[in-house]
Specification:
Length: 197
């Protein structure tokens, strides 16, 4: 007796997995499979933002330091200019004082000749013009007159004579007049003083 084989029976058996066998229909994903949340991308953005903030803070600190350096440099330059001007002015004043001080001998001779009535004619005119030039252009002032109250700050007493005619120390004679340039005394007046007896 001959068996009859169905040629499609094998294909149907392969197509039917049978009961209890899981079927992969290629459709819906496994509900128990982990679902991606994009965490890697968010971490990268967070790190990039932190780096930008750190770089911004570093640049801000460098800018603040640069501004401070510029401020200090500007202050140093300003002080240098001020000191230079003060030094230049001081040199000019010192030079003026030296020139005028070197002329004291000439001025003393003129004053002595005046006291002895020896200044007359062209010589007297020249002496007066010389003194006026110093007074006008250099603000040189002569001081120390008979009858003034003695002031130890601007007067130098070379002689002291008791007198019943004065109540306070008073200049009785001027030996050498004093000179000042503005408020600065270049030479104290050398005088003879009459003191209360």
């Amino acid at each position: 007796m001959t068996e009859h084989h169905d040629p499609f029976a094998h294909e149907e058996a392969a197509a039917d997995p049978g009961p209890g066998t899981p079927v992969d229909d290629g459709g819906s994903p496994d509900p128990e499979a982990p679902v991606g949340t994009g965490g890697g991308s968010d971490d990268a953005e967070s790190d990039s933002l932190a780096d930008l903030k750190a770089e911004n803070a570093r640049l801000a600190d460098e800018l603040a330091r640069a501004n401070a350096s510029y401020f200090n440099l500007n202050q140093e330059y300003t002080n240098y200019v001020r000191r230079s001007k003060e030094a230049a002015s001081g040199f000019v004043n010192e030079g003026r004082e030296r020139v005028i001080t070197s002329l004291f001998g000439v001025l003393d001779d003129i004053e002595l000749a005046r006291q002895h009535s020896e200044l007359s004619g062209p010589l007297g005119s020249m002496a007066e013009k010389f003194e006026n030039t110093l007074a006008t252009n250099f603000k040189l002032e002569r001081f120390g007159e008979v009858g003034e109250e003695f002031d130890p700050v601007i007067h130098e007493a070379l002689m002291d004579t008791p007198s019943d005619e004065v109540e306070v120390p008073t200049i009785g004679a001027v030996i050498q007049p004093g000179y000042r340039l503005g408020e600065k005394v270049l030479r104290a007046a050398r005088v003879a003083v009459n003191s209360p007896a």
